[in-house]
Design goal:
Strand order of the largest sheet: 1-2-3-5-4
Helix content: 40-55%
Number of helices: 2
Number of domains: 2
Distance between the termini: 19 Å
CATH topology of the largest domain: OB fold (Dihydrolipoamide Acetyltransferase, E2P)
Largest sheet: 5 strands, mixed, barrel
Radius of gyration: 20 Å
Length: 132
């Protein structure tokens, strides 16, 4: 769970969170600049502007992202090496493997833009105001 402050309420609210060291390269919070940044979250409790809330990040989204991020490039590399070996022998395998890897990364970028790939965190509760 992560604490946040509601900036813009709504069914998909905009909240401000503090960046944790463990999520530095997650990518869920698109342009992350500095320690605090804005994230969209599904609001199931009807939070109001300025409320301190708790966010829950869906674990299935992290697992799917990891599977896609590692599986698709690996499949592209293996497919490229196999195709290159069949086409040009051992010399062509390395070059075709790199081409397969590059094509896999392009495919991964396209997949990342699909709506079913985006899973928003969920606002699950309000917090008591803490003095910082």
């Amino acid at each position: 769970m992560q604490a946040a402050v509601v900036v813009e309420p709504g069914p998909v609210a905009t909240v401000m969170i503090s960046r944790e060291p463990m999520c530095a390269n997650c990518g869920l919070c698109s342009p992350a600049t500095g320690k605090k940044h804005l994230v969209q979250a599904v609001d199931r409790i009807g939070a109001k502007r300025g409320d301190r809330v708790l966010l829950e990040f869906p674990m299935a989204g992290f697992l799917r992202a990891a599977a896609l991020a590692f599986g698709i490039p690996l499949a592209g590399l293996v497919a490229g090496v196999a195709a290159g070996y069949v086409w040009r022998g051992p010399g062509g395998a390395a070059c075709a493997g790199m081409v397969g890897l590059a094509l896999a990364y392009l495919l991964l970028r396209r997949i990342d833009r699909l709506p079913w790939c985006r899973e928003y965190p969920v606002i699950v509760a309000t917090c008591q105001q803490e003095h910082e």
